[in-house]
Amino acid sequence: MSLLDEITQLRQEAIERIKKSDSLDSINEVRVKFLGRKGLLTAILKQLKDLSPDEKKEVGAAANKCRTELEQEIILATESHSGVKEASDFDPTLPGTDPQIGKVHIINQVIEQICDTFRGMGFEIARGPHIETDYYNFESLNFPPDHPARDMQDTFFVEGGRLLRTHTTPVQVRELERTDPPVKIIVPGCCYRNEAISTRHHAAFYQVDGFLIDVGVTLADLKGALVAFCKNFFGEGLKLRFRPSFFPFTEPSAEVDISCFLCTGKGCQVCKYSGWLEILGCGMIDPNVLKATGHDPDKYSGYAFGMGVERPAMLKYKITDIRTFFNNDVRFLRQF
Ligand code: DAH
To answer: What is the pLDDT of residues 11-22, one digit of tens each?
Structure first.
């Protein structure tokens, strides 16, 4: 029998034995017998020296191929045997353990929905620090030091005269210092106020501010953008109402109400029988804000708006207590 035939036969025999092995020990025996230092394949290789160069090449290649193949088979057999051994106490009929799958927090989901609508209108996202200076939070936004508008935004003060920002509006100023119009920016983030915590108020809450500045921006642009947003977020068929209001950093200013979609305007507990729900504040950016950031109010105009996140989220998902957002009770959070 030629050496090549011997290799073929040896290979077949070894594979059969590996397949029949019923333990790691018997697999190892096969390995030693065929591939070991004194094994059968080694014995064949030792005879190579007596062959012609051409034969040497041919037989050597066949022997190496056979070795690689057998090693592979041995690895596979070893793996499946170890598996069976270790898993011998595994009962596939038992119910499995449910993995705890995390979710995006409902507040972040709502922020994402809001930002997504504005992103669709070409707005970019910007963020700013939660610990602000008096200048960015108030002064640059046209709140003079003793202005009563500050009373509505009492907050927590930290060392060095800094404070926890009461709204996301200061990011308008930070962005305007950094870039020149045209700008279209949306600013989501956490804000803080000195509030007595109740079902409707919390000392930490989320807002999304937005603003657009360019040449020739008018109140009609503001209205168009907000109507598009409200319909997209709350659903078509809504009515919007712009109610005159006051913010130091916009002039004129308005509060936007949507027709109560819970009672479709007939009057219910949620809308306090008015048929309307207050959703956001907005207005045309005050020339003083443009001036404070080095932009010419005779050249540029812009609109801005700011909304809370919890209230629209509560309305949309019929949540009655703002505190449930922050208690981190997974039974609540898992529902969204
Ligand atoms: N920053 C205001 C607040 O927290 C909300 C607001 C009103 C933001 C009008 C704006 C705006 O950008 O134009 O009460």
So the answer is: 888 888 888 888
Nearest to 312 by CA among 195, 237, 208, 184: 208
Report how far ligand 1's centroid is from the alpha carbon of 97 (Å).
48
Residue 275: exposure state from Cβ atoms within 10 A (0-12, 13-18, ≥19): middle
Strand extents, DSSP E, the chain: 124-125, 131-132, 163-164, 183-192, 204-214, 240-247, 250-259, 276-285, 301-308
In this structure, what are the phi and psi dihedrals at residue 309, rounded to the nearest 5 degrees?
-105, -35
Burial class (CB in 10 A: 0-12, 13-18, 19+), 288: middle
- Compute the distance from residue 254 Cα to the ligand 1 centre, in Å: 10
Ligand 1 geometric centre to CA of 248 (Å): 9
For 176, the token pair is: 């305007």
pLDDT at 136: 97
pLDDT of residue 98: 85
Look at ligand 1, atom 5, and give the residue with the nearest C-alpha: 306
